[in-house]
Design a protein that fits this description.
elongated, 8-stranded antiparallel sheet, 9-stranded antiparallel sheet, 645 residues, alpha+beta
Length: 645
């Protein structure tokens, strides 16, 4: 039995089915994303989105959709579905009777006595999607007509009918190839059978509407190019595969390749299987370079902060430790400026020390790690000295002050009309916690594996001691019983936010044990939910508990109340350290909630964020590297503490 299923009543109800998305991704960075009834509701939806090397590896949507029609006794049944304004036409979803997603998405249609299935398989190591059609039951022979909808545009934009588009095609074996604009790869559409007729009938379908973009107040209409159609006959038991690829296939191998890829696709028999599968496809392996995609289908690949946060979870703890250094080496090579001279992610370079510490604790040689990465860690620390970075610098008290007018310099980086929602200029609680942890890690390892007369140790030990002396004084508020979120020229900002968790979760904490319990009590009382950690206390007048409405309304909620699953990892680290095995039951409860949501939002994937208010609906990227990694890490902690006696 499939792990994830939907029945006819759920599928024909568009208010239900359009909110649930298929997300297939592979290691090349290609993806397929649509709703469970194959109606695209976002600009990011389509059957084949691929990184285009000619355009810097950014993702482009080549094939938006394929409409299937069945000709039965002279009557045409169109199984496709598109939205045009407020109208859905055709309405092929009414023929859908079943959907399952194990090991690949399969949609079952029923037209009278005819039962017909469509399976979607994204080839794991190539920019290629295969659609397998099978006529399961039919009293007589039928005709199937396949009509492709082409986009050839960035996944972040929309296209319109234009005279620059190349609307011609070239024949390839068992199919045709298209290339609408200069610089794009060819899109080869090929069938596993030669018994078909291709009828060119170039036409633009204007005003295709993406309802989810409309709901969010974005541009939502585009024109898609339909070049023609494939027509072929099927009898009961027949199957045929349509391959869409950036390279031409040998048609005689298409079925064999499909079957081999399907066989190699692991079945999903448990929630953990699903979690590890999501982790696997979030690692891109393209052109000999491994990197982490922050989320599907619109978040970017190779981002500094997101990669460092997710790296241990998606590699070490997901059973792929061999990928750790490959990803980190690529990140360092492509982020030299951010690591050493300037960035709007001021805390991100300082996260490197904690990531390396986890790598060492998992069994890597501390000496080898320091020999390879020690110069990077030291270089990062030295870049925070006065006069190096314009956005952040070391102060006489040993702490770091970050400020750049009208710029959000931390992970809380939502903007409205060009102005940050949470600027947080000054001494930031988490940035300075990472700063202290980095100093401790670097000095400790340099003393063990560096030069005996290390100038680095001599220069930075006094700074480490100053941070230890001043951090708690700067951020602790005994009257409130928790840490200030940041401190500026007006004093302590006492918004109750989760950033203070990092002051406790780093290995070398600048906080004394006697106040840690009070901080955790406040976090648990005001921020912990059944779907992650809120970004702001509901008691705050700025709190927005629901991520809905206009772009402005959503940006006000994004880090002003939304619950983030990613923050469960620092929270769990802290509480397990304080309470040990007794926290296991609550930690398991927190994890189970996400498994209960696997049939929502991104089917089988782990969402970026949730409403801060119950019932905590999922939002944001439908498959998030931060969320996936955090859940893997929390599960590891649960298993670790369960084993302790």
């Amino acid at each position: 039995m499939a792990f994830l299923k939907f029945n006819k009543a759920e599928l024909v109800n568009l208010s239900y089915s359009l909110k649930r998305e298929i997300i297939c991704a592979n290691r090349t960075g290609a993806y397929c994303n649509t709703s469970i009834v194959a109606c695209n509701t976002r600009r990011y939806h389509g059957l084949l989105g691929v990184p285009v090397d000619n355009f810097g590896g950014s993702k482009y949507m080549l094939l938006s959709a394929v409409d299937e029609s069945l000709m039965v006794n002279g009557k045409l049944f169109n199984l496709g579905i598109h939205c045009y304004g407020d109208i859905y036409e055709p309405r092929g979803h009414k023929y859908i009777v079943d959907f399952s997603a194990d090991p690949v998405p399969v949609i079952t249609y029923r037209v009278g006595q005819i039962e017909f299935t469509k399976s979607i398989l994204l080839v794991p190591d190539k920019d290629q999607v295969m659609l397998r059609y099978e006529l399961k039951k039919s009293p007589s022979k039928i005709q199937m007509i396949l009509k492709p909808f082409l986009a050839f545009r960035s996944v972040h934009s929309l296209t319109s009918q234009n005279s620059s588009a190349r609307t011609d095609y070239k024949p390839v074996k068992n199919g045709v190839a298209f290339n609408m604009y200069e610089g794009f790869p060819d899109l080869n559409l090929q069938l596993s059978t030669s018994a078909f007729e291709y009828k060119p009938s170039p036409c633009w379908y204007n005003g295709v509407t993406y309802s989810d973009e409309a709901r969010r107040g974005f541009a939502c209409k585009e024109d898609l190019f339909v070049p023609g159609s494939f027509t072929l006959s099927l009898s009961e038991g027949d199957s045929v595969i349509l391959s869409a690829s950036v390279s031409e296939e040998n048609p005689s191998t298409i079925k064999r390749k499909y079957n081999a890829a399907l066989k190699a696709t692991p079945g999903i028999g448990s929630f953990r299987d699903q979690l590890l599968h999501c982790a696997d496809v979030l690692i891109r392996d393209r052109n000999g370079r491994k990197s982490i995609t922050a989320g599907f289908s619109w978040l970017y690949t190779g981002l500094l902060r997101e990669t460092l946060f997710a790296l241990p979870g998606l590699t070490i703890y997901a059973g792929r430790p061999e990928a750790f250094e490959e990803i980190l080496d690529d990140l360092i090579a492509t982020n030299q400026e951010r690591f050493y001279s300037r960035t709007t992610q001021v805390e991100a370079p300082l996260m490197l020390a904690g990531v390396l510490r986890e790598y060492i604790e998992s069994g890597a040689s501390a000496k080898a790690v320091w020999k390879k990465y020690g110069s990077v860690v030291k270089g990062v620390i030295e870049s925070y000295a006065p006069g190096v970075r314009k956005e952040i610098a070391l102060q006489p008290d040993g702490l770091l002050w970050a400020q750049k007018d009208n710029t959000a310099l931390t992970w809380m980086n939502a903007y409205i009309d060009g102005r940050p929602v949470t600027e947080r200029a000054g001494y930031q609680v988490e940035t300075n916690a990472f700063w202290y942890d980095s100093l401790c890690f670097a000095i400790e390892n340099e003393a063990l594996y560096g030069k005996k007369d290390s100038q680095f140790i001599a220069a930075w030990t006094p700074v480490r001691d100053l941070v230890k002396e001043n951090y708690q004084k700067k951020f602790w508020n005994p009257n409130c019983g928790y840490l200030a979120d940041y401190v500026d020229n007006n004093g302590q900002n006492m918004d109750v936010r989760p950033n203070q968790l990092f002051a406790l979760s780093v290995a070398s904490s600048p906080i004394s044990d006697d106040i840690a319990g009070s901080i955790v009590n406040v976090v648990e009382r005001e921020l912990v939910t059944a779907r992650g950690i809120r970004t702001l206390s509901p008691r705050d007048v700025k709190y927005k508990g629901v991520y809905e409405g206009t772009q402005t309304e959503r940006d006000l909620a994004y880090q002003q109340g939304c619950a983030w699953p990613a923050l469960l990892y620092p929270y769990a680290k802290v509480v397990f350290k304080m309470r040990g095995q007794s926290f296991c039951k609550k930690a398991e409860w927190l994890i189970e909630g996400f498994y209960a949501d696997l049939n929502k939002h991104g089917v089988g994937a782990f969402s970026e964020l949730y409403d801060g208010d119950p019932p905590h609906e999922a939002h944001g990227a439908i498959s998030s590297a931060l969320s996936t990694a955090a859940l893997i890490c929390v599960e590891r902690l649960i298993n670790k503490y369960k084993e302790e006696k």
